Amino acid sequence: MLENCPTGRSFSAATTEGVLVYSIDDSFIFDPTDLDIDVTPEAVDAALNEDKLSKALILSLRLHEDSLIKKCIFKVSPIDIPAVVSSIPYRYLQRLIEAFADLLESRPHLEFILRWCQELCKVHGNSIQQNSRKLLPALKSLQTAITRTHQDLKETCSSNEYMLQYLR
Description:
This is Small-subunit processome Utp12 domain-containing protein. The protein is mainly alpha-helical. The chain has helices spanning about 40-50, 55-65, 65-75, 80-85, 95-105, 110-130, 130-165; strands at about 1-5, 10-15, 20-25. It has a three-stranded antiparallel sheet with strand order 1-2-3, with no helix packed on it. Strand 2 and strand 3 form a beta hairpin.
């Protein structure tokens, strides 16, 4: 059986070897090894509705859907971040770090995302340090996003400081 994507940029084939997914996009990653019948976007929404935030985030990380991952991240209150971070298994850290780097690039809630990053380093610091080679690309993109944000804030603060001096 062969199915085309509505965008025309990918297609999938169900064969005796399994499901094969072909895509023009390099960024498209489909990893079905972590999926089962209960891992669906509907299951993520159900977990969010039941306030099972850790479960919802893990399900969204398993699906590797950026929109669901971000939705779950923003559903967590700042008070609950430590509990949710401590429930995340190591194998999902890379996806989570990549999501934080993407979120910092758009900067919707800077302090909130930095709090997530800080808690992630506190809770999973040893795992991150021991497996730094595997996580290096994600960590570099996070560092780049944080550095860029710092530079933008520095420029804004300097500009404001000079404006205040002028107004005095």
